[in-house]
Amino acid sequence: MHGVVLQLLVFGTGLLLDLIPRMRFPFAFALLLPCSAAVAAEEVTVSFTPADQSCRGTMQAGERELPFSTSAPVTIDVAPPARILFRAEGCWIAPVDVRAGTTRVEARVWPAATLRGTISVPPGEVLPESLSIRVSVAGTHATSDCTVDKAAWRCPVPSTSIDVRIAADGTAYAPHYFRALHAAGEVDLGVLPLRAGASLVGAVEAVDGASVELRPERIETVDATRDDDATRVRPSRDGFFQFTAVAPGTYEVRATAPGRSTARVRSITVAEAREYVVEPLLRLDPVAPLRVKITPPADALQRPWTVLLEKNIGTVTEPAAESAADVTGWWESAPIANGLYSLTVRDAGGARLHSQRLEVSSATGIVDVRLALIPVRGSVTAGVKPFPSKLDFHQTGGRSVEIETGSDGRFTGLLPATGEWQVRIQSPDRRFYVVKREVEVVLRDDQNVAVVDLPLPGGRVRGTVVDRHGDPVAADVVIYRGSRPVADAATDAEGKFELVGIEPGSVSLRAVTRGAESALVPYDASENGSASARLVVGQLQKVEGWLTTPDGHPVAGALLRYVAPSFPGFRETTTGPSGEFAFRVPAGTPVLTIASLVPGMPIRLQTVDTSDGRPVQLIAGAGSAQLFLRGTSGPMPLLLAPRGIPFPFRGLIFPPDGSGSPPRGLQRDGVVVDLEPGPYQLCNQEMSTCLPADLAPREKTTIDAEALR
Question: How many C-beta atoms surround the C-beta of residue 112 within 10 A?
Answer without folding.
Answer: 18
